Amino acid sequence: MSLWVDKYRPRSLDDCHYHPELSSRLKSLAASGDFPHILFYGPSGAGKKTRIMATLRELYGPGVEKLRIDQRVFVTPSNRKLDVNVVQSNFHIELTPSDVGMYDRVVIQDILKEIAQTQQVDLNAKQKFKVVIINEADSLTRDAQAALRRTMEKYMTNMRLIMCANSTSKIIAPIRSRCLLVRVSAPSDEEMATVLTHVAKKERFHLPATASESIIEASDGNLRKALLVFEAMKMQRPDLEGDIDVARPDWETYCAKVADMILQEQSASRLLEVRAKIYELLSHCIPAHVVLKTIADRIVDKVDDELKASVVHYAAHYELRMRQGSKKIFHIEAFVAKIMSVVKQYALMGMTEDWE
Amino acid sequence: MADTFEPTGLLGFGDDIEMESEEQVVASPPKPAPAGAPAPAPRPLRNDMPSYSPPPFDMDEEPSDFEDDVQAMMDEEAAASVARDLRSLEPTAEEKKKKQEEAARRRRAAIMAATQPQQTQQPTPPTTRKTSGVSSAASGSDSQLPEFMLNPDLGFDFRPVASSSRTRTELTPPPDLVVDDAEVFDEVGRHLPRLRATTASGGVVMFRRKLRQRAAEEEIRDDIQLLSKPLHKLKAEVEEMRSREKAMELEREFEAETQPANGKAPAMTMWVDKYRPKKFSDLLGEDRVHREVMNWLKEWDKCVFKRQPLKKRKQEEEGFVYDPLGRPRDRVLLLSGPPGYGKTTLAHIVAKHAGYATLEINASDDRNAATVSSRIKNAIDAGSGLASDGKPTCVIIDEIDGASGGGDTSFVRSLIKLIQDVPARKKSNTPARPLRRPIICICNDLYAPALRPLRPFAHVVRFRKPASQFLVARLREICDRERLTADLRVLTALVDLTGGDVRSCLNTLQFIQSKSPVVTHEAIKSSSVGTKDTGTTLQSAWDSLFVPMAAKQRRKQLGIDDGRYVDRLAFMVQACGEHERLVQGLFEHYPNVKPLDASLANVCRLHDWIAYYDCLSGKIASNMEFELLAYVPYAIVPWHTHMGAPGNATRPAEWPKADYESFQTRVANEEIATSLKTSIPPILHSLFTSSTSLTELIPLLMRIISPPLKPVNANIVKPAERAVLARLVELMIPLGLQFWQEKAEDGQPMMRLEPAIDVFVHYDGKRAGDIAASRFAVRQLVAQAMDSEMARRRGQAGADSDASNTAAMLAQQYGVAKTGRKDAAAESLGPSTDFFGRVKAPAIVEDPDAPSVPTQFVFRAVYKFNEGSSSAVRKNVKMSALM
User: Fold this and answer.
1) Does residue B671 share a domain with residue B598?
2) How many domains, in total, are found in chain B?
3) Is pLDDT larger for residue B637 or for residue B32?
4) In the prediction, which pLDDT does B42 show?
5) In a domain? residue B804
6) Which chain B residues are closer than 8 Å to A203 by Cβ?
7) Going by fewer Cβ within 10 Å, which terminus of chain A is more open, N or C?
8) Which fold has domain A4-183?
9) Do B382 and B479 have their domain in common?
10) Do B734 and A2 touch (CB under 8 A)?
11) DSSP sequence for A180-213
């Protein structure tokens, strides 16, 4: 018994509700016996992980589904011990570099060598190689990526890499060129509606169209989130009829509140209030760039058309700075101040700043 | 008596005698008569002494007045050293009253000597003379300084070498070089053979031994003078002598005034020592502090001097502890304050004032536990020897914050033991000798870790900056005495610059005085910048970045008002050092200030600088590029450009804490998220990354597990609600979520969710509006349901082979499950119920009816389950296959 996200996750490539052509390609890849390194990329909640697991099942059979969490200890060159939880089956192992922060290179090197140097023990296994899945590959540091380059070629006989990332822009070119790039795009609204209806059918209740629409709208192409929202709504209001509120994560609501505050008043004191709210968000472990993006989204929704472009521009501008710098709050506040300035100027003089 | 003679080595000049004579020509003030000129009237005296007839090669045979001769003889003994100046002759001039009589006596003696010339010569012990070079000339000549050289007017720039060589040849005392055949005998009549030397050119030179004059003879000679001099000359001489004495007296007076401690101190003492306060009333700084210290020391009087304090203290004072020895409650005084505020001076003066001899132990001494017993204890018990003058000893431990070492053997620890009268050896039955003398400790940093154990036992006195005007007045006085021109404004600036450090002020002034007689702003700036590198506190850095210096203050401090601030502020930021905290403080405070340009555009421009700073510091931290550190102050100074305004003075920056608080909360929350992640099934672990589990999973999961249940008895809930409850239980168990009963802070029982992921739906301390309030009763209901489910699962996993029991349970389970979710019930049906909360095979999920055995059918199934692992082949077996 599990959450719907897990319960109605397609187990095989055939079960996937959308991107059938991708499924068939993956299937033939798995069958060909010439399986490459693959880099899956695409927006969050599009179904990358689901497809990875389905492909693994295609490769190894249902044994891949038997997952266990192992706690591994790695020793950094500076003799620090790192405890890492590693999800693995008999046939594959999953790494999440963001768990170990700046020491990801050590972990990657250790694990890859270990996997690469041991051959598949199970003689009945369909494949000679094991698979290493690297989640959030775009958060790999440059060092770790560089460490991957040679390993990927050298240990090709014993190991395949499957990486999972939101975008390829942070993956260094040598790695990109060694991988088969597979883009998993977000499902369209119709596709999402199909999935939601399927789940409702399996759960034996009727999903009203209005509820479906509002869920799809709130989840923004993120099917994982849509399913969670769906389940939350079902749990809270079992009938799902009529005009219902979509369950939103709290931080989203909070970000929207912050955006409204910015648009209501533009002053130094308001800046101080906004800062307190942003600190609240950050202390709830919401990533800073997510905060910035969500606020920017909300502001774009609210402001006049003439300002939309500059809001987006500044959001990008300050997010870049944030990624270059180290102190997140400075840059979020800089963004807020800039937006306040732009909005105020527009309100007073009816003109936009020339930001080019 | 006789000097060793070095014959050849020193006669490097071939004919050094000639050289001497040359010098003499240059320097001797009285006009030398040509060689061989007839001697003046007193000359017969010399003629009586044939042994002293000038040597043939000695050319400076000039006549000099008789007085010279006599005076030189008189001075022979005093003039032993080469570098002799007027002042060093002072001892002869010291007896002012006797001066004239002495002169008269001398003359009388001279007369006598003249009348008995043989007498004078014969008994004198002969001395060898070095004739070589300047040294010989000097040593020979010094013994025969003419009197005019004592005369301040004539003698200031006299050259001993020259004058001596002149006098030597003609004076009655034996000349250095003699080649005549006269033999010299010492006073006991021994024969003194002539000395032989070779010049560099190979010539042989013979020297006669010199006879040392004795005082008696000098006096005799002196007396002769009296007659040989006209009265008016004598009178003038006396007059001169008097004026000289007067001048010396004045000089001494001045010196005694400026150097009261040791009147004879050399001219170049440090002003700090020269003008160190000598009396209690001389002390600079707060009187209150001085009196406090004095009072504390006086409290020891009863113990040390066995006398009652003059002023009866109220014995029943608050916190008064009776001490049988009459000691004060805190047996140690701890003076603390920045350097240069006069702590050490105060301690010494107060101790002296209260009648103690002091024993100072400072950083230059070895300070360990042994010091306490060897030096301090001994000094206290025995007094510090003869120097103490019978006074009791007060120990002053200077710079105690520098005493290193921790543990039981450290200096401070053993000092505490001493204070607390702890016996040195634990086992010994003899009680410790109690502390009977005051101890004063001095430190800069009161909160130094080394002092932590001492503080509770010490009477702490904090020093504050001496009031500026008093310090300036004192500096002014010193400047006047040192003939240094300084106006009050400059001195005030100096005091401000040094932060009231008296020592630093005095050193700076003395340094300036060595260069110029006038103290100017420039001089202070150039000599003080960098001398006191105390560092800026964060608070003052914030203030000076937000509040521009008033023009007046600027003029006062820097002397020039050119409106420049970048260098000054950059220097200050650099001195402050803690860039990160500095910027954090600025950042947290800036929306509160009122800059001159209050527009948001100004804020945006400032933010460009903040971003620049952040970029720099990020690079420095991550890539260790410390060369970039030099630019950091310039990235901070623009805060002043954009935010500085005079009005900000009323809104001082506060210590930044928001960022740190937020960081701490984040760390705590991350911990919660991690604990959730370790408890959820692996597939969820891999489906949700660390960020998506925070942004998606946890907030929505909280909604999923908080259905609007009503807190009623489990037996009477509606079927729909029961279904919800069952589903909830099914969800929470594999996710590792549990409710624990706890007592809240107010004593109310509460059910706590574990892991406490509900923090993620609480913003601003409030729960999100769309989540139903999770009441205690509801949570309790859920917790009960979970407990029973867990118990049931345990029972199943325990492999109870009792089929009827199983059937009953299945029936019960089915009854529950029937109402809502068949598949849910079905899933938990088989004996292989997902023990680890693992995902069931989809086939079972998809087809709920197949495995569910109808309850009406009574069956018996017996199977044996061997717990543990086995290497046997595993195969999936359905129950139907066993039936």
Assistant:
1) no
2) 4
3) B637
4) 44
5) no
6) 821
7) C
8) Rossmann fold (3.40.50)
9) no
10) yes
11) EEEE-PPPPHHHHHHHHHHHHHHTT----HHHHH
Least confident of A91-95, B167-171, B378-382, B838-842: B167-171
Q: With respect to residue B226, please indicate whether it lies within any of the assigned structural domains.
A: no
E strand or H helix at A75: strand A68-75
Clarify whether residues B395 and B497 are in a common domain.
no
pLDDT mean over B711-732: 78
Q: Are B162 and B23 in contact (CB under 8 A)?
A: yes
- What confidence category does residue B766 fall into, taking pLDDT thresholds of 50, 70 and 90? confident
Q: Of B497, B526, B555, which closes a domain?
A: B526
Contact yes or no for B677 and A85 at CB 8 A:
yes
How many residues in total does chain B contain?
Answer: 883
Same domain, B544 and B486: no
User: Domain ends where: B414, B444, B463?
Assistant: B463
Query: Do B516 and B542 fall into the same domain?
Result: no
pLDDT at B787: 87
Query: Among A264-268, A274-278, A350-354, B343-347, whose mean pLDDT is lowest?
Result: A350-354
Q: How many CB atoms lie within 10 A of CB B27?
A: 17
Asked, for residue B8, whether it belongs to a domain, the answer is no
**Alpha-carbon distance B161 to B137, whole Å?**
6
The answer to whether residue A156 scores a pLDDT higher than 90 is: no
- Report the CATH number at residue B330: 3.40.50.300
Spatial distance between the Cα atoms of B318 and B580, rounded to a whole number of angstroms: 47
The tokens for B101 are 């009589």
> A319-352 burial, b if ≥16 CB within 10 A, otherwise e?
bebbeebbbbbbbbbbbbbbbbbbbbbbeeeeeb
Helical residues (DSSP H) of A237-350, grouped into ranges: 250-264, 268-283, 288-302, 305-324, 328-349
- The pLDDT value recorded for residue B111 is 60
Q: Beta partners for B557?
A: none
In 3D space, the residue among B342, B370, B355 whose CA is nearest the CA of residue B442 turns out to be B342
- Looking up residue B487, the CATH number of its domain turns out to be 1.10.8.60
Give the list of residues 6+ apart from residue B233 with CB closer than 8 angstroms, or none: none
Q: Between A and B, how many residue pairs show a Cβ–Cβ distance under 8 A?
A: 229
Which of B 737-756 lie inside 8 A of A, CB atoms?
none
Same structural domain, B547 and B522: no
Cα separation, B787 vs B792, in Å, equals 8
**CATH tag for A250-355 (out of 3.10.310.50, 3.30.420.40, 1.20.272.10, 1.10.10.10):** 1.20.272.10
Least confident of A105-119, A198-212, B97-111, B461-475: B97-111
Evaluate if residue A22 carries a pLDDT over 90: yes
What is the phi-psi region of residue B742: left when phi exceeds 0, alpha when psi lies from -120 to 50, beta otherwise?
A: beta
Are residues A341 and B827, on separate chains, in Cβ contact within 8 Å?
no
Residue B551 falls inside a structural domain: yes
Which of A121-125, B216-220, B830-834 shows the lowest per-residue confidence on average (mean pLDDT)? Answer: B830-834
- Strands A159-165 and A180-183, sheet pairing: unpaired
Q: Are A1 and B622 inside 8 Å of each other by CB?
A: no
B581 with B506, same domain? no
Scanning A176-215 for CB atoms below 8 A from B yields: 203
Range in A189-198, B510-519, B824-833 the model is least confident about: B824-833
The DSSP H or E segment spanning A92 is strand A92-95
Q: Which residue of B has its CA nearest to A326?
A: B618
Give the pLDDT mean for B114-123: 48
Is residue B515 located within the same domain as residue B571?
A: no
Residue A356: predicted pLDDT: 52
Q: Can you name the residues that pair with B207 across neighbouring β-strands?
A: B195
Among A265-274, B678-687, B802-811, the least confident range: B802-811
DSSP 3-state of B211:
strand
Min Cα distance B577 → chain A (Å) is 18
> Which domain range does residue B555 map to?
538-655
